[in-house]
Structure formats: structure tokens, C-alpha cells
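Researcher: Next sequence.
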Amino acid sequence: MQRITSCGASIAYVSSFGCTLDKAPLHFFWGHGWGQDHRVFLGLAHALERYGTQINFDFPGFGESPHPPADWGTADYADAFAHWIATLPPARRIWIGHSFGCRVGLQLAARHPSLIDGLFLIAAAGLPRSRTPFQRLKIRTKIAAFKAFKVLPRLGFDTASLAAKFGSADYRGAGSMRSILVKVIREDLTETARHVKCPVQLVYGALDDQTPPEIGHRLLALMPNASISILPRFDHYTILTAGTHQVQHQIERFIKRIEA
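Model: Next structure:
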């Protein structure tokens, strides 16, 4: 892997070239989801090499990229990539993201509109979930229990066996990135999405219960140049495995839209 330093962060990445970097008509930037790394997109990137340069990277704090220099939010991640992208040869640039990678892509397109020509967002997050009163009550109860749980060790109770029951899998596995995860999931990107003017393709799995399609429909209403596709039978993760060929088809359609 190669490395670039931007905004104090070391970013590991691999590039594959449909043609040389300075002659490529399109540059693709592949932003993986939380807890993943560049490998999740390698198959898709390879399948699209004929269209241009593929840049698969590990976000700072994931894979082979060390922790960022501070507890970054998605705007900080976007600014770091903007500084890097601005150093590359001119080309039409498409950001392809999954989940967390979509959050960064929205920030990038909103904060640095001259650098991004299109966003292809798979299972995009960034807006608060719409929940029923019962679901809201359940969450408040769980938060209260978690706060009480954190006090128990101070009272001499061994809570190791109970720890796995609280928080999401991402939260439990976040380790040194936990403070960044908390910051990211608290962000509401509603106003950010309103400032995205480039073409956007939203793609969701119909069975996704982590970033359900209702989030996509609300994002669609915020961005003037957006479209949405719902793929049946796929959830938050199988959309990138069993759904790969359908996602590739959607990307190729989006490429034609960008090139038109």
C-alpha cells in the first residue's frame, strides 16, 4: 500500500489504473463503512477499472491507517480527503461510499463542491432514525440502564460478564476509536445534505435495519440532484456481497450520468 499524509493523518491506499493517473477521465474514491477497510470494495473497484483510476483507502483509524491526530468528526475526515484530492491531476471525480463512508462523502461534496462531480452512496447514514414512541422509550430505557451500569464498578461490582449486552457491536468493538464513533453517530447531516448540489445516487437494501431505506427517502428530499434505488433481498452488509453485481450495474448507470 502507498501512503499520503493530509491534515496530520496518514492515509494508506492502493490505486489501480484503467489508464495513467494524469490521463484518467474518471477518478473513483472508495469510502468503506465503519469497522471495515479498503478490501471491502476491491472487487467492485477491479470490475470498474476500465472506466478510470480506482483509489481504495483505509480511513484514518481503520485498516493500515493509524488513528487521526484528534477525535475527528466527519467534517474533519472530509477536509483531509479534500486536501489530498486537490493535489491530484484534474478529472471527474466520483466518491463511492458505504454507511460511514457516505457520511464523509456528503461532507466532502457539501464543503468542497469543486472537488467532487458525483456521489454514489450505498446504505447512506447521516440522518436521525425515524422511530415509533415505543422504540424511543426502549432506547431511553437502555441508555438509562447503560449509565447505571457504568457506575457499578465504582461500587465494587464485577461487570465484565455484562459488558457485551450494552451498546451496538460497533460501539463494543470501537476500542480507541470509540470517542470518534460517538461523535459521528450524534451528527445530524440534514443541513449538510441541503448543500450537496452534484449528482447523487442513493442505493439501499430493502432489508437494511441499520440504515433503512426511509433514511434514503429523506435524504432524497434534501438534495436537488439525487435519485434512489432500493434493492430487494439485501441488508446493510449483503448489499456488498450477494448484491455486488446489482450495485455494479447501478454504478455503471451512474457513470453514464456523470459523463453525459
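Model: The first strand starts at residue 2 and ends at 6. Confidence is low (pLDDT under 50) at residues 134-139.
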